[in-house]
Amino acid sequence: MHFFKSLYIAKVVYYFIVGIVFLFVLAFVFPFLLGITQLFFMVLILMLLVDSIILYKTKKGILCERNVPERLSNGDENPIAIFIENRYSFSILLEIIDEIPFQFQKRDLLFNTTLKSSEKQIIEYQLRPTKRGEYSFGAVNVYVKSPIRLLKRRYQFSNEKMVAVYPSFLQMRAYELMAISNRLTELGIKKIRRIGQSQEFEQIRQYVQGDDIRNINWKATARRNDIMVNAYQEEKSQNVYCLIDKGRVMQMPFDGLSLLDYAINATLILSNIAINKQDKAGVITFSDRIGQILAADKRGGQMTKILELLYKQKTRFLETDYEALYIYAKTHIRQRSLLLLYTNFETVTSMRRQLPYFRKLAKDHLLMVIFFENTELKTLLDKPAVTTEEIYHKTIAEKYFYEKQQIVRELGQYGIQALLTPPQNLTVNTVNKYLELKSRGII
Question: Rounded to an integer, what distance in angstroms lies between the CA atom of residue 397 and that of residue 390?
């Protein structure tokens, strides 16, 4: 039974069978064809028998193994590798079908290759998950053809594996490596000149060209008979909280990811940068009620806690309760902190309903409201309108597009920082805004 389950007939055999049947039919009209047709049929049967013996005389002719990372990064291209070794004594043709998780909705993941005897090969491809959670990989199916190419033998390697998809830790590592090598500008992070100075005194040192002359310490200069300046260091250990809205407005999709997933990926990267700058990073999720909470900290293991917390987040599809957020912040966040609020507003009216809570949060903390551009509207605005219907659609699109700009202006009138960004630029723009606020010393 195992033999028949693993044996497959190549397409060319069916073509031969159709040709032989056609010759048998013609033999009724031209009797001399009967002998030739019978000979062809016997040769075909003999070749099939020889091909099956060649394929099955080696018990384990193929070695195959799939290598998958222990966890996948959401929204990123993750490398997958399939290792194959030919243990036959002849060259073979291979068809490889990998049973990847159903979430990718790919039914045509087929690889064709050729291997010489004892040759090894690694087939690499990329998978881009767009949802967090558990992904189940199935078996790897390898179909082998001998040089005769009439039959195929299937080898099935049960490399079944459950892999968790986490927020974008690959982007986090990329930003971290770029920061170490001082190449963040390649990712769009701006070099921001520090405006003003912190009041946290560090040391008195000798003046070098470029130092602010307002920092000259005249008493020390007189004692040393050399120009000395006061050096200040950047304030550290400040609280940076990422507040993630899990309400229905964050379920809107863009390029396969929801706005919630974009916010989660940006939170992971910003928290890592904040901790590297010696600030304390924390996370609060909320919707119709307060969700998961992680107090701001910078000790070792904090990034692991943030990653595990963000992995479990799901949209609740309910209206967000900003009053509950304000009450929690008022009660539990005692120290003045930077609050990065990831949410979304489509109209000025929807923002104004929450404005009283924003103003109360901004009294005790530095609040930055981060929401998203509707890139589809922008595309529609850039496209010329021809018909009456298109003009009508463009007029409505302009209304909603400029309402987003008005939201930024109104928040600014009350001293609330606002960041309107396309989803794909969320991480870069948020990091730039954080660094700008740090440079201005207003956190």
Answer: 10
What is residue 253's three-state secondary structure? strand
Give the integer Cα–Cα distance in Å for 138 and 159: 6
Q: pLDDT, tens digit, for every residue of 287-346? A: 999 999 999 999 889 999 999 999 988 887 788 999 999 999 999 998 999 999 999 998
Instruction: Determine the pLDDT at residue 317.
Output: 78
pLDDT digits (tens, 9 = 90+) for 223-245: 888 898 887 655 567 899 999 99
Q: What is the SS3 assignment for 5-63?
A: HHEEECHHHHHHHHHHHHHHHHHHHCCCHHHHHHHHHHHHHHHHHHHHHHHHCCCCCEE
Q: How far apart are CA 33 and CA 31, in angstroms?
A: 5
Same fold, 1-166 and 169-193+236-440: no
270 token code pair: 């910003």
Distances (CA, A) of 24 to 9, 14, 42, 67, 134: 22, 15, 13, 51, 57
- Look-up of token digits 């069916």: 14
CA dist., res. 381 & res. 407, Å (int): 19
Secondary structure (3-state) at 219? helix
pTM: 0.77
Half-sphere exposure of 260 (CA within 13 A, CB side): 22
**N residues, the chain:** 443
Q: Which CATH superfamily is domain 1-166 in?
A: Immunoglobulins (2.60.40.10)
Residue 196 has pLDDT above 50, yes or no: no
Q: Show Cβ contacts of residue 174 under 8 Å, excluding neighbours closer than 6 positions.
A: 187
Phi, psi for residue 369 in degrees, rounded to 5: -90, 125
Position 235 scores a pLDDT of 57
Domain boundaries, given as residue ranges, for the chain: 1-166, 169-193+236-440, 201-232
pLDDT at residue 204 in the model:
84
Fold held by 169-193+236-440: Rossmann fold (3.40.50)
DSSP 8-state code for residue 216: B
And the tokens for 300?
A: 């070792």
Pairing of strands 290-297, 337-342: unpaired
Using CA atoms, how far apart are residues 227 and 219, in angstroms rounded to an integer? 10
Task: Report whether 117 contacts 85 (CB < 8 A).
Answer: no
- SS3 call for 394: helix
pLDDT tens-digit readout, 357-387: 999 999 999 999 999 998 887 778 888 888 8
Q: What are phi and psi of 392, to 5 degrees?
A: -65, -45
